[in-house]
Amino acid sequence: MKTKYKLLCLGSGVELEDTALQLESGKSDKPAFLRAIYEKKQLESGPETDGLFKFASWLPVNRAIRGSSAPVTYKSEGLAGKLGLDNLYITFSGYWPERNAGMVTGTFKECEAYSVCARLPEDFDKVLVVASAGNTARAFIKVCSRNKIPLIAVVPRRCIDTIWVDHEIDACVKIVVSGGDSDYFDAISLSGVMCSINGFVPEGGAKNVARRDGMGTTVLSAVTQIGEVPDYYFQAVGSGTGAIAAWEANLRLLEDGRFGGKKMRLMLSQNAPFTVLVDSWRRRKRELVHITPEEARKLSGEVYAVVLSNRVPPYSIIGGLYDALTDTDGKMYPVTNDEAVKAGMLFQETEGIDVSPAAAVAVSSLRQAVLKGEIGKSEVVMLNITGGGYARIEEAGKKRRVEPHLILDPDSRDPDSLKAALSKLFSRP
Any alpha helices (H) in 167-318, and if so which ranges? Predict the structure, then answer.
């Protein structure tokens, strides 16, 4: 399949043609990301009616699919005035009709879902498997259901209340719950067993170049609105994939040459007490700090922003979060539940829209940085609001709860038993 891009293995330097499902090269002696290298070195931005695909020149996509919305960037007045910042730009991904933000799942995970699905060939005949703590599942359920792409979304039981839709789910999409006291990693493990069965393939998470470049459109939105690369980039992270995507987009913009020569400093945050990435970066070592499954489940049950509790993030891998933080002299902030709640209220009071718990964590980290004098009054700041408009979604009647199609023991490891259960869902022989 001839594409407008190649895949570069960051571990070996080998360039590959894309197969639409390729997640690694097999050429590196250490775990390493692939990165999309586009033929067009300067970003071409299409019409607003193209939604996310107005940035298609820098997306690894092979077909057009319907219903997407791009992130929206605007210059803040309310929050900026409260914090004393002259150049605060907010990139909003969620549902806010007055600002033409139309992500009815309320999350920037729609960016990755549309990009991943548009990377698939038209004749894709397998079942895509996605593990999620909530936001990613909502996004893929929407995109796959509307575009008839077979999908299994695997979600921990504790997160099932975060799954909603604005339409009837197509029969090609199934929601499977990892039962008991399972967390996001248990859902990932269960999805891995599913993908050992013929006909079921992993979406790939952070290893999927389409996922990262889809999320990188938040930076493309900001830079095309501002006219330059920001000095600082604020986001709350669970896996850190969005921050890696932001860094990669920045590298492409440097090569473009029209938006300045800056590398924006990654200013990232996590919801305490689940601070695996904060603790790892404080040591300035590539190795991720160890956390037991029992401890991870306990801590993830104590945080306001559950989606930020990933115990196996892509931190150490070549091209991962450690490299992104190192290259940008990044910083990480722990944010308590109380601080996040107050920050979410501050954002709603000053900007006029509710934000997700994860986005509230990012707002709190920005406030911390300002109070500590870490940001100059006139410096250009991008605040990535990764989800919001939940109240507006509810008001518009676009929030319907869903029931899982299947509940499985998180320790299910027998492919034959799983195959029988999944075959019933999809009527597969």
Answer: 184-194, 209-215, 217-226, 241-256, 276-283, 293-300
